[in-house]
Amino acid sequence: MLLSSGADEKCSAAVVHCPVCLHPDQGEQHCRTCGFLLAGDPVLGAATDEDHRSAAAELAAAAHAWDLEAARRALTGGSVERAGITALLRPAPTDAPRPADVPRPAGAPVPAASPVPAVAADPLMAADPLVATDPDTLTELLHRLTTGELPEVLFVEFGTQRVSVVRVYADDAGVPHPRPHAETPWTGLVPGLGTSEAQRHFRLAGGIGTDRPVDRPDFDRAVRDWLHTAVPGACEGADGGTTALVLLRGGIGWTLLDRAAAVTRRVCAPSTESPPAAAPGPGTMSTTTARVRRLLRGAPLRSPHTLLLARTGPGTDDHVPVELAHHTLFEAGLRLPPGETRTASVTVHGGPPARPPGSGGAPPSETLTVVLPLLAGHYRSADPRPPVLGLPVAELPVFGSTRLTFVLHGPGEIEVRADGGRVLGRTPGDTAPGLPAVLRRLPRHIPRPRPVELVCAVEMSGTDRNEIAERVGFATDLIRAAERHGRAGGGLRAAVIGYYDHAPRNEHQHDRKVVQYVRPGPPGRALRHLRALPVEVRPRRTLTSALEDALKTAAGMTAPQSTGPVDRVLLVVGSRPPAPPRQEGLVPGCPRAVDWREQLGTLRHRGVRVGLRSRPFTAPAPGVPGGNRLHRYLAEAWHDLTGADRLLLRPGTDSAERAALALTAGQAHDTDGGPLAFAAPLLPHGHPIHLGADPVHDDTATPA
Predict the structure, then answer these.
(1) Whole-model pTM?
(2) DSSP string, 343-370
(3) How many CB atoms are closer than 10 A to CB 685?
(4) Where would I find the beta strands (DSSP E) of 331-436?
């Protein structure tokens, strides 16, 4: 007889399996999978009852130890799962050891020590040598894919939930793209694995248990048939297996997953295999696709990855042409080592401001929303399908610059970060315009920015010193902001006019200065004059001020000069409208009979844009004698001051920065606010537009 604990099991069926792990017997003395003794040395005579009891105890101990190892691999930490797996374990004899990290069935006695069989290599895997997992082999395969030598590559993964196949192809620019190809749950492929997650994990890890086990040859046939159905082009004997296949290896030691991999090697002869993962994944399409995408990051760049920008070309008239410019972020041939990235930093520039449609007199925004087209290669207008990698959007300061960082994670996968590490979002897929639609919004020409002369007329009289200080502070911030934005157009010249209440009607009192000013010149000189203006706090006697005298002074400043094209703008920063040339009802007239409408017409005839910064007009209280006529005059005066320019700013709402943009941007154009960032400032330092010589005047003067 053959004295061994597995002798009775070994001879009990035509198809011989190891009684411990159920792997088919190869005729050896020990199982090649679990190392269990299948046939002992020959002895004389029949086996005694003690021999049978001893062999049964050894078999029970080995079977229990095998299931314990499978349970250890299958456990992920949930108490419900632990209880489910514990119920599946084959019972151990009282003298069998139990690892501390595996739960003990309820009521089980504490076992004594006994030998645990060693686990040998899977016989199916031992019969077929492993495919090389050299990273260079996978890199070469991906190179052939990106160059078009291979039309596609299939990636197969056997997970703990499903079996998935991901198809990868490369587009015309050589960027690989993963796409779902096939996905089947284990419950449909091998129903004997069980319906619960605990059963499935336990049996895929090699556990046998007390229920009906999974037959290994039946399992192999199910995997083989599925491969012929899901990836026929990669199977040997189907046109020679012309489709390249990569086997995604899961965690080593999951017995049935290892068998499935071994069947794949026999049936499909994979081109290469991925390095084994620390633990098997679920094998769902999403997780397999994510794993494939990580491997594709090691593919070389066939085309350079570029950023599409705008730039201005040379021009001789009032407009400059707008052209496309490509900035190379990452050169062709670059290949990222596993887990690494590459970065490139680029400074991009904002263009002219854009007024929102239907905004009327509202000032433009301080920022521009631009698209940053990322391309594989270069854009060509004749290409119906430009190689677009992404269309992230960014907020850029008008006429300002922003430093952007582009992080390459793999071919076609670029992350964009702004200052401070903030990641820029992409336009939502359902609303994202295509690149041709974006470029149709790009103007062919933009107006050449011109130098600006800014005149600030500030009301220096009032009943509250804080109110006057707020107006002075706003004008100070405005000139400083306009100086920054004015550099994009060749420079800024600033003037300041301080105006006060009218002089009292007293023939015995000398006329006082109702206007003090400094002519257009360097912004610093205007700021010094603004700070030096005296503040006049006095009770308010009328609802008007000497604004008409300030308008007359501004008209004198803006007389035509031979200094080249200049944008001139006047901003009134005050709280009361001008006085009429003659008294109108309760509204007293100007002591000097200055007609403010005439002065306003002169300014606009000379191309001066006029703006107003004031709080909304408040009508007189009901019951005031002549209130209706007074209301009509005050309302018409504020309306006429803004005119067609509609440069109306509100305290507390419109910042000095926005006001500077509105005043220095020139007239609004349909082509303002291009959709792309600029590769360089619109007009760098040294542009040939100048304001001419700065005439010398007294710092303060009064109108004649």
Answers:
(1) 0.70
(2) EEEEEEE--S--PPTT-TTPPPPSEEEE
(3) 7
(4) 342-349, 367-371, 374-376, 388-390, 393-397, 401-410, 413-417
